[in-house]
Amino acid sequence: MIGWVIRLSNLIGQSDGTFWVRLPAPLFHMATSPLLMGLAKRMIGRDAAPWVGVTFVTLPAVSLSSVLMSTDTIQLAFIAAAIIFFVRLTKAASVPAAIGLGLSLGLAFMTKYSVLFLLPGIAVAMLTMRSARISWRDTAIAGIVGAIVVAPNLWWNVTHGAATVRHTESIANWNVGSHKTHIDILDGAGFLAAQFGVVGPIVFAMMLLAGWRMIRGVPQGHDQHTEQQRLLAWLSLPCILLITIQAIFGDANANWGVPAYVAGTVLACAMMMGLPWWVMRSSLVINAVIAVLIPLLTVFPYTLRLPNGDLVMKRYVGRSAVSQFIAETAAKEKIDILVAGDRGILADLFYTLRDRPLTIYAKPRDGFPESYYEQMFPLPAATGGPVLYAATSILTCEGVPAEVVGRWAVPYGYRRGSIIYVQKVTPNCLMPATQALAMR
């Protein structure tokens, strides 16, 4: 989905510059906000709609992903649409709404598999709440439509060794293949703590409070909206719980919980509206300050630093500088074939050097490829002549260190403190062990 969206934006702008790559991000958030306002109006009341809208657009995760381009940004809009159709179907059977539900869920799945984390909560809500049930006919229609939408993707996976599923599994490291050798409660606590930064401390605290009240059986907010708030809780909190468990047993990034914050934002606002108004105001002020700071950080990415000297935007800057250094070394050596094994380096090489007369390959490996680049652009065994290999360590080929033709101690950005070595090697030195043996 993100590939389709970026491609469409490039076609509209007739450019693949960073502006047109990132432009859809704020536009998708601009679409999600009124969807959530409509959901809030239906489930909480008319007065809640504007507060939900302004709370959503000031969430730290939304502010950050408005200046970047990520799968989460796109998925939120489809999840919001799916929840609206689902809630509509709980009120009355409707073929168009069922089609809309299936279509929205299918597109959300095509955007990112994390939408599956919402399904257990929906299932429990339908089992335990009469007001959350939809007709079997509408369920079947939504299921069929959703299956049609995702069928091409699933079929591609079937015919390509379950590539996407295996890659997702390799990222998640769920038990098998995990670097962990034991259960780590602190990692789960760390994921939960990170959520206070993802959506703001008060918003996440209100979601947790709603869950606590639901467990204790305390009415959440106005009595007439208790059932709706229970449904919102089931549509959000189980997702956070599942990923927290994932963090305990394997790995989990802070943004994996983002699908929970569609219904979660509405739920948090419902809680805040039942409390003194200073709670809502404090939440908006805290998040609004962050919402202003994040665009400023992108304007001055090389100015603002943390106490330890690192740039605040360290993760997002310095990538093109590494690619430019590698390209300059290639020009000096008069070699036009570049190879790297690191996915981050490869990604920027392909983008930053897209207009250069250079050929870029990924270092092949035995077994399942670890990135799209390894899958689609592995270095061919028949490549003739020397190539340039970029890495943060020196390659040893048959016990002999490779010839280093370029060396750069990166002074800033995401590679700060690392040394990039550009090495002249023969293709055979970069082949995986089994393939290199076969070539001898």
Largest sheet: 5 strands, mixed
Q: Report the end-to-end length measured between terminal Cα atoms.
A: 43 Å
- Summed up, the domain count is 2
Please provide the count of β strands: 7
Give the proportion of residues in helices: 55-70%
Lateral arrangement of strands in the main beta sheet: 2-1-3-7-6
Descriptive account of the structure:
The protein has helices at residues 2-13, 18-22, 24-43, 48-57, 60-65, 71-91, 95-111, 119-128, 136-159, 163-172, 185-198, 201-216, 226-234, 237-249, 261-273, 277-299, 319-333, 343-352, 372-376, 433-439, and strands at 337-340, 359-362, 387-391, 396-397, 400-401, 403-409, 419-425. With 440 residues, the chain is α/β, with parallel strands linked by helices. It folds into two domains: 2-299, no CATH class; 316-439, Pyruvate Kinase, Chain: A, domain 1. The strands form two sheets. The protein has a five-stranded mixed beta sheet, covered by helices on one side. Strands 4-5 form a two-stranded antiparallel sheet. Strand 1, helix 18 and strand 2 form a beta-alpha-beta unit. Helix 11 (185-198) packs across helix 14. The longest helix is centred in the middle third of the chain and has 24 residues, at 136-159. The chain is globular and about 70 Å long.
Keywords:
alpha/beta, 5-stranded mixed sheet, 440 residues, 20 helices, two-stranded antiparallel sheet, Pyruvate Kinase, Chain: A, domain 1, single chain, 7 strands
Question: What is the topological layout?
Answer:
Elements lengths: L1 H12 L4 H5 L1 H20 L4 H10 L2 H6 L5 H21 L3 H17 L7 H10 L7 H24 L3 H10 L12 H14 L2 H16 L9 H9 L2 H13 L11 H13 L3 H23 L19 H15 L3 E4 L2 H10 L6 E4 L9 H5 L10 E5 L4 E2 L2 E2 L1 E7 L9 E7 L7 H7 L1
Parallel strand pairs: 1-2, 1-3
Antiparallel strand pairs: 3-7, 4-5, 6-7
Helix pairs in contact: 3-4, 3-6, 3-15, 4-15, 6-7, 7-9, 8-13, 11-12, 11-14, 12-15, 17-18
